[in-house]
Design a protein that fits this description.
GO molecular function: glycosyltransferase activity
Strand content: 5-15%
Low-confidence stretches: none
Main location: membrane
Organism: Pyramimonas obovata
Keywords: Glycosyltransferase, Membrane, Transferase, Transmembrane, Transmembrane helix
Strand order of the largest sheet: 1-2
Distance between the termini: 40 Å
Pfam family, one: HPAT
Oligomer: single chain
Structural class: mainly alpha
Largest sheet: 2 strands, parallel
Order of helices and strands: HHHEEEEH
Shape: globular
Length: 160
């Protein structure tokens, strides 16, 4: 019985496979979340790993596409990837050097905007920053530029 290394990748599955894993996935996620040690160890990715374990327990396997999704800043180029997933903080020096685990002089982290709408346009990363991060910011800027009333979208928004 193998465990697919699916972790944070998007998963496409048939509804029959979802039916096989759904209750186990739910139960594992709740048990892990209510266990302080597990919750601390797994944090915000807890339910993703609960899915992975539930799939294994229920003999649901996945066709893996190793370069399916790029995840800047860890993937430095988008070559060969199909989709772009932004989840990690992107921190760089003013010279474009990646600073993992340390807030950089240039920074983009979607969690910085949980209670407000990001500015449009976002400041472009410094020269030397990986092409994946530069493309991510350019794509966000392109999208927000064509959305009407970008600056008022968050009015009345509450964060719980």
């Amino acid at each position: 019985m193998r465990m697919d290394p699916i972790g944070n990748s998007p998963v496409m599955l048939h509804k029959d496979d979802l039916a096989k894993v759904a209750s186990t996935w739910h139960d594992m996620a709740v048990r892990m979340k209510t266990d302080p040690e597990a919750d601390k160890a797994w944090g915000w990715v807890l339910e993703m790993w609960a899915y992975t374990a539930a799939a294994k327990v229920n003999d649901v396997y996945h066709d893996l596409v190793p370069k399916f999704q790029a995840q800047p800043p860890w993937d430095t180029t988008l070559d060969g990837f199909y989709i772009l997933h932004y989840t990690y903080g992107n921190d760089f020096t003013d010279k474009g050097v990646f600073t993992p685990g340390k807030i950089g002089q240039w920074r983009f982290d979607k969690r910085s905007y949980m209670g407000r709408i990001p500015p449009c346009p976002l400041k472009l990363p410094p020269e030397g920053t990986s092409s994946s991060v530069r493309t991510l910011i350019e794509m966000i800027n392109e999208a927000c530029a064509v959305l009407p009333n970008w600056d008022t979208l968050g009015i009345g928004m509450s964060v719980s």
